[in-house]
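Dear colleagues,

As part of the handover before I leave the project, I'm documenting each prediction I ran so the next person doesn't have to rerun anything. This entry is a single chain, and its sequence is reproduced below.
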Amino acid sequence: MQNQREDSGRVAYVDALRGFALVGVGLVHYLERFAGGLLPDYVTDGLGHGPADAILTGVLWASFGKFFALFSILFGVSFAMMAERAADSNDLWRTIGLRSSGLLLIGLLHQAFYRGDILIVYALLGLGLLLVVEWRSRYLSLLAAVCLLGIPATVTWWWTGGYGLEVLAGDSPGAIAYAEVLVAGSWGEVAWANLTVGLTHKMQIYFGFLGRGWYTLAYALVGVLAWRERRLFAEVDGRLLHFGDLLASLPRVLLALAVAMVVTFAFAGWPVDWSSAYAFVGYRLYDMTNFLVALLLAYGVFRWLRRGGDLPRALVPYGQLALTNYLIQSLVGTALLYGWGGGGLVQLSLPQLFFLCGSLTVIQLVGSRLWRTHIGRGPVEWALRKWMTLTELKVKKRSMGLSPVKKL
């Protein structure tokens, strides 16, 4: 009974943290105008360049990658929870396989609206984690460290000669063509661009110069280890945090990495020569800072939740409906900003986008609490669970030699 209460506290913390990460993800997506990449300068010319715009631009650039890292760590936590519940390896492969196929279908539909979809990546990542989840913790830690240090990304960069550098150029022909589709294209034209060139763009981001795929794997592995090693969640239950000394040193390490990153980028020139080794090393340092910031954010919510903070507790139902809320963010945002909808891409300033994001977040927070109280599982979460259940029933009936309509 004590273990059940402890796990309940940990799960509530994970839900609150997932909700917090999703708020940050939504903020970044709105401030970047749901472009899923850099836009040509002409798109936002004349939309305001006052102090508020400058501050929000700084918030956007400072937030890139941080909430994504936190969200990916929590994906690893969820994966570890499912792996723990599976009775044996066969159950685990079936469960993750079914869930990944469902996520892939949802992700492709989401990709048609917004090319920055993450569900496709998580669907594939879940299958990849199956290959290593039964490793001992020390080996998982080593693999995570190798990825966090940028070793696979470095090998990819060297082997491909800088594959994917074009995603960092907002004035490239590809970026200009995509911006024109977003500004004046129909929904069908946007969907076609997202499901063709957009998927290529995703490959460039995750397995090209940016190497985000390797870091996503590392973040997920950290989440798996965090759940597997229960002592990392000790303070949720009011006990001494075992790695408190390590967390206390993170701000100093983060500061050192940030200084090293700025100095390294200074040698890359301005505008930055992304093909240079300095830019590549600087971006690896940036990825490491993202990871450390994600840990500090997690610890901040950790402390707030323990002290009875109202906001993190309000985030619990929001995090429980994370999949539904994530999709709503994109559907509302693209409908407001793209040319097939409200056309706000070339009309709304950053303060206006910030207000829209905040308003939607408040509505979702209230709506999530009411939904969880009166209905239960979120609609998309329910559909995914239904998909897994129906597929499992078909597998069981075939294994018994029964047709789906034959009665015993």
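DSSP finds 18 helices and no strands in the chain. Residues 1-7, 234-242, 395-408 have pLDDT under 50 and may be disordered.

All the best with the project,
I.
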